[in-house]
Amino acid sequence: MTTPTSSAKATDANTAGANASRATDAGKGKDQNAFVGLGLKVVDTTKKAGNRSLDAYEKALDSSLEYHTAIAAASNVEWVSTIADAQAKLAREISAATTAAARELLK
């Protein structure tokens, strides 16, 4: 029977250590991939929620502005109606620009 030399023992220990290290790294890779996948799902869900919030904002603003102009038109005072229409138009234009910018950021 031959006994392994000290250099053979060291080589075997290094090989075993390298194999264990690779196995640990592979486990880390799986955990990291799962974490990245979860992060991507969170980002996607957040983007969808942001777009839904913008939709709700646009609908609420439009409804409010329609009500605003309807009341102004019912006043039978021309200048009040004109100012209310101009104000509603400005609010719609600003809203359209800001929501478009927000939607671009959510892409």
Largest sheet: none
Anisotropy-based shape = rod-shaped
How would you classify the quaternary structure?
Answer: single chain
For the terminal residues, how far apart are their CA atoms?
Answer: 70 Å
Provide the succession of SSEs. HH
Strand content of the residues, in percent? Answer: under 5%
| Rounded radius of gyration (Å) | 33 Å
What is the helix tally? 2
* Topology, number of strands: 0
Model regions low in confidence, pLDDT < 50 over at least 5 residues:
none
What's the rounded overall pLDDT mean? 82
Structural class by sheet pairing and helices: mainly alpha
Considering DSSP H and I runs of 4 or more, what fraction of the residues is helical?
over 70%
Summarize the structure.
With 107 residues, the protein is mainly α. The chain has helices at 6-74, 78-105. The chain is rod-shaped.
Description:
The protein is mostly helical and about 110 residues long. The chain contains 2 helices and no strands. It has helices spanning about 5-75, 80-105. Helix 1 packs antiparallel against helix 2 (about 80-105). The protein starts with 5 loop residues before the first helix and ends with a helix.
